[in-house]
Amino acid sequence: MAKKEKKRGGLKTFLTIFLSLFSLGLVAVIVMFFLGILPAQNIPIISDLAQGSQKQENLERLNEQLEKEQEELKQKIEEQESTINQLQEQLKSKDEEIQELTQQINSLENAAQTNPQKNQQAVDIAKVYGEMSSKKAAAIITELSDDEAVSILSSLKKAVLARILEKMTPQDAAKYTKLLSEQSAAQSEQPAAESAPSATEEAAAQ
């Protein structure tokens, strides 16, 4: 019994000394940490806490950056939508202007058909096209019938005609150039046919 009690007393004393030393060591580590003598990364528990805190800060910064980029992207999209709306309004205004000019030209053409002074009307129509921009004139002419378009184009000055054809698509420019060429060839052949003597006149002469 005495031996058992002696062993128990020795174990108790050992545990008491061990716990005291552990407590003193822990206190010493904490004091050294706060004094800056012992870096936090050398203490596993504090190091883990510090790393976790750093990761949280990094995630928060990343989240803030993503929110900022998202807001900037949203603003850019809104600006682009505003620009598109403005361009659509401008296009609509240009279409209305072209329609108005087309109506004016149609009125002049109708007047030219009913008015005996057709040559003067043709000059007036050509003047209208000459005063407007080549781009607008090209857009309107391509909406007319081929006969109407050729009638107007043939009345224009060469410089104005060249500028208008330049604003057309290559297909339209080629088409109207061919029609003008055919009209010019037909007009040049007509006087020659009128001046050539007929077979009856040749027989009478003989």
TrEMBL record:
Skewed-composition ranges (Low complexity): 181-206
Matches recorded under SUPFAM superfamilies: MgtE N-terminal domain-like
Coiled coil residues, start to end: 49-111
Region listing for Disordered, in residue ranges: 180-206
Domain Magnesium transporter MgtE intracellular: from-to ranges: 124-181
UniProt cross-references to Pfam families, sorted A to Z: MgtE_N
InterPro entries recorded: Mg_transptr_MgtE_intracell_dom, MgtE_N_sf
Keyword entries, A-Z: Coiled coil, Membrane, Transmembrane, Transmembrane helix
Membrane-crossing residue ranges in chain numbering: 12-38
Protein name: Magnesium transporter MgtE intracellular domain-containing protein
Lineage: Bacteria, Bacillati, Bacillota, Bacilli, Bacillales
